[in-house]
Amino acid sequence: MNPLTRLFRRFAWPSRVLTLASLIGLALLFWPARALRSDNFVFYLPTTRSVIALEVIEQNKYLPLIPVLNVVGKVEALQEKRDSLKIWFGKTQIELRVDDKKVQVNKARLNLAQPVRRPKGQWLVPVDFLTTVLPRLTSETIEYQVGTNRIFIGDVKPISFTVRLDQTANGARVTVQFTDKVTIHTAASNGKWYLFLGTRPVEPLEQTFRFQDPYISEIRFDDQDGSPKLILTPAVGGLNFYPTLAEGGKILLADVLKPPPPAPQPPASEQPLTATAPPTVPPPAPGVEEVPGAQAEPPLPVVVLDAAHGGADVGAHGRDGVLEKDLVAQLVARVRAALLATRRYRVVLTRVGDVNLAFEQRETAANLHRPRAFLSFHAGNLGMVTPRVVVYSYQAPSPPTSADSQQPRQLLIPWTQVYRVHLEQSRQLAQALQEKFALLSQVATDKPHEAPVRGLRSIDAPAVAIEVGTLTPDVDSGALTDSNFQQQIANAVAAALEAWRGGTS
Asked: Do 329 and 350 belong to one domain?
């Protein structure tokens, strides 16, 4: 037998036992760190943000050293030995040793609260590295609140906020006061409501607000994915949620309400047009899906509301940063609430949330519901007079004949010509809207216009486009974001639809 083989057999069993014991020891050493892995740490800079995963070792937070350094600069070279690391960072030289609290920066020796670690070959530093060492590596201002998982580097001015909860007649109202304006879009998941606060960095005074309330149990701030948001936890299920922005985006009002009781069923021989309107439903924010509410005897006529633009397609923009996609989404939310409050319509939204939809997607969403009316909302340059409202119906590329709108419905009609069937009713709807807008105080209006608006061409229903203005970089758009103006528009649309509906069966 080969001498090497005999030697291996002689020591194989003891060696395996020692190896297994070593592995168990290592597992026990590092198991708490993996089991207690925390969330992320967010680095906010003037134009970017970075999210870096945290590690928790023996209940202390650690960050990976190299990614942290690359957030504020560039690691140019490094020299790694078994238990030490030397880094060249610009004109600065950094030296660290495993399980040592001391860090040498050039000739200065700095002490950390916890020792440097290197599990699985990754160099980790405790979070206080950000306040002890980082200021010596960059000339930028650094703001960090101990205990939080976010840091602001450079000329970053984060928004803060306060929260108040008040009782209402049939629910609760959450009022969030921001130090600067925000934009919001919403989502719901696992019985909670999520309010995304746009792209501005946010520094909360408190991370979590808890309430002894029958409607809201907790409001928590979260930005661990780099997206600042408020997470609202209802105390019970089945509640309705209606958020909206006020004061140009500096105040968030969120109403949490019990569902309204079912409307009484009218006799079969009567039409449900004389039902008493319920209390006004608070307007939701852009991106809230339609909440089922009490309705009269089905089927109710469908009104489709289309908020133009969305996503990367921001549309026009004002001097104060207001984007067309956000403005029209706010208008649609208020119109939706005004129509639902009448209990005479079902409301369908073509755009839910901040997404960019093609014309075909909007048309399909509308035509599938065979709507009574289609209203598309826009904002743009309508001259120096503001606020101003103009209503458009579709203008055919060739002059239509008077018989176009009186022809019986054919089995197959090309989508590019379906507007012809509804030309006259579209004009009547535009006229009804203009008449109601003309009654509004301090709002300029024009007579209805006809134009080849692409979004109206393939809608199989009376369809109009409502444009508000002026929204340009040369004009302050504060008048268009005013809550009173938006509510006047919503009420006028509801009144116009009812007047127009009364004249057409």
From this structure: yes
Is residue 470 assigned to a domain? Answer: yes
Report how far residue 55's alpha carbon sits from residue 52's, in angstroms, rounded to the nearest whole number: 10
Amino acid in the structure at residue 160: S
CATH number of the domain bearing residue 372: 3.40.630.40
At 264-306, the pLDDT tens digits run 655 544 444 333 333 444 444 333 334 344 333 457 899 999 9
What burial class does residue 208 get, using C-beta atoms within 10 Å of its C-beta: 0-12 exposed, 13-18 middle, 19+ buried? Answer: exposed
User: What domain range is 473 assigned to?
Assistant: 278-505
Tell me how far apart the alpha carbons of residues 216 and 176 are, in angstroms, rounded to a whole number.
14
Per-residue pLDDT tens over the stretch 337-360: 999 988 889 899 988 888 888 888
CB 219 within 8 A of CB 164: no
Averaged pLDDT score across all residues of the chain: 81
Query: For residue 202, what is the DSSP state?
Result: B
Instruction: Note the helical H segments in 147-260.
Output: none
In whole angstroms, give the CA distance from residue 323 to residue 419: 30
pLDDT digits over 86-109, tens only?
999 988 999 999 999 999 999 899
Report the C-alpha gap between 312 and 324 in whole angstroms.
12
Q: Are 134 and 54 in the same domain?
A: yes
Rounded Cα distance between 236 and 191, Å, is 9
Query: Which residues on adjacent β-strands are paired with residue 108?
Result: 105
Extract the tokens encoding 364. 């399909």
Give 422's DSSP letter. Answer: G
Q: Which of 466, 468, 492 is nearest to 480 (CA)?
A: 468
Token pair, residue 187, equals 């989502």
CA distance 301 to 315: 30
* Span 74-95, average pLDDT: 89
Report d(CA 251, CA 182) in Å as an integer: 9
Of 92, 118, 153, which marks where a domain is finished? Answer: 153
Q: Is residue 35 part of a domain?
A: no
Burial 331-348 (b: 16+ CB within 10 A, else e): bbbbbbbbbbbbbbbbbb
pLDDT (tens digit, 9 = 90+) per residue, 353-394? 888 888 888 888 888 888 999 999 999 999 888 999 999 998
Contacts of 15 (CB under 8 A, 6+ apart): none
Of the candidates 77, 79, 100, 93, which has an alpha carbon nearest to the alpha carbon of residue 136? Answer: 93
pLDDT of residue 383: 87
State the Cα angle at 189 between 45 and 363, rounded to 5°: 90
